[in-house]
Automatic annotation (TrEMBL):
Protein name, per record: Uncharacterized protein
Matches recorded under PROSITE patterns: ASC
Pfam family, any one: ASC
GO molecular function: ligand-gated sodium channel activity
Classification via PANTHER family: AMILORIDE-SENSITIVE SODIUM CHANNEL-RELATED, PICKPOCKET 17, ISOFORM A
Membrane topology: Multi-pass membrane protein
Region (Disordered), start-end ranges: 124-144
Compartment list: Membrane
Amino acid sequence: MKGGCCCGTPEENTFSKRGSDFIENSSCGGVPNIYRARSCFKRFLWILLVLGGFGMTGWQCYEIIMKYYSNETATGITVSYNSTIIFPAVTICNLNPIRLSAAHLNPELHALFVQNYQLNGDASTVTRNPTTTPATTTTSTTTKAPGGLLGGGGGLIGGVLDGVGDLLTDVVDGVDNTLGSVGDIVGNVVDTSWVDKLNSSDYYETKSQFLQNEEAFVNAYSKTNQTTKEAMGHQLSTALLSCDYAGFPCSPQNFSFFTDPRYGNCFTFNTGVLAPVATIAKTGPSHGLSFELYIEHDEYIKELSASAGIKLLMHNQSYMPFPADNGLDLEPGRRSSVSLSLLQVERTEPPHGTCHEFSRDEGIQVNAYSELKSLPIEYTDEACYKTCLQLNIIKTCGCCYPYQPCSGVALQSGLDMHDDTQFCNISNTDTTSCIKGIQSRYNKNDLGCSDICKPSCRELMYNAQISSSLWPTNPGMSDLIDRLKVNDPSLKPKLGNMTEDEKRTFIRDNVLKVDIYYQKLNYETISTTPSYMLEDLLSDIGGQLGLFLGLSVVTMMEFVELFVDLFIISIFKCCNPATKVASDKSAWK
């Protein structure tokens, strides 16, 4: 034998010999051609091609790796079918937050919004005081002396002349009054022109009267205890005339209750707290929720309600409803059909996305609404953002923004900084200025709320299509009036004294019907997934190596074998110096 099976004879164990063997026998397409080239020009071309291939491969591999670490995502839409589907929670709020006849339960609210009203006998009958001043008229009498046909100051001609004079006087006075009225109108137009308002430096700083009324209400309402809040608002026992779910009757006992700072008493059906969450297996109005509501239009306070009707929201059972931000406004005198379709959104977690799946305990730490006992509230980014804003207002301004909760674990770090933290008085200039400063930083994302309030990895939404028709029909008026009298006995004398036209107008202004149902049992899923995975990276790198260098996994193993052999030769030469000298001498011969 000439040598060991591992490295061959000493004469063969040189770097140059092993390198020559690799170049001559490599499966890497261009490398053997360098060795076999018959002319220097061809050898130069092959070297150039191989180096160019290595350069292109390196550049393409860099681009591929950068693409992998950019964490790109792809969004896809799939449509699925279920034989049963969860029915959403349905929240209803009257557009009027408190009843006019119950405002006296809060003296501050009574003074703010009922000061232009006069109570007649009891608190349930309220009329407005006159706000117009009766016009004052003056009467002047002229006595004329009797005279003949041409008599001085009298007679026929004198009477005619006096009549002409009076007529001219009336004309002149009329022109003067007309010109004066025109002057007043022109003056008013000039004084209140939009151009002057827009040019004013404080145009966008002055709040509308309606917003001022709302803030004054929320300011006083936030300081009211929960029992009084509920008593002042519209009662579902009075408002709910009929209710059916999938053909079976429901009642106020099937609705959970909470108070909203803007809309007062709100009621939610199918929360999962009072009964298991309802599911539906069929589509159409007969297999959904249907109810009739009496909105008590006569109890509205004009300073707080610009329109009449209800706010309607469809949402997941674990989501906090925010009627001021979301929902539909439905008017009385109509039957509204709300057909639903379910939309599911699925997001990816880091590094390809920013979503986070919050546990119950994690949600409590960042969501002040999650401790609401009447609703099974869990984490939503919307509730988290409101909590984050409230926490920063508490820390900086020392009080709670009255539009949001003022207690809970999520706010405790701010509450601990101040003794006996109360709701802010937003009519106070300094307090309002502090809150506006925090809100400005919030809008610029300077508070870091986006770092805390990550979107949920899975979210359910409901798309609604609405249609409506006049309701009730004229023949159906009498039945509805009978139900009204049973539901609210105080209406009996009032309705009894009305004509048929007045009753019809009363019903159109006060009662509505809503049908909520699924349009289809299909639901869409919008999912975001990583578009470039590790297997894509390896595949693309292999493609580039094969395209520009003709490399494969076998070729890569040849390179590994080369490096192993070179390493063994190095060890062999270090351990056998005599062999190294002999090999070097033979190399010079």
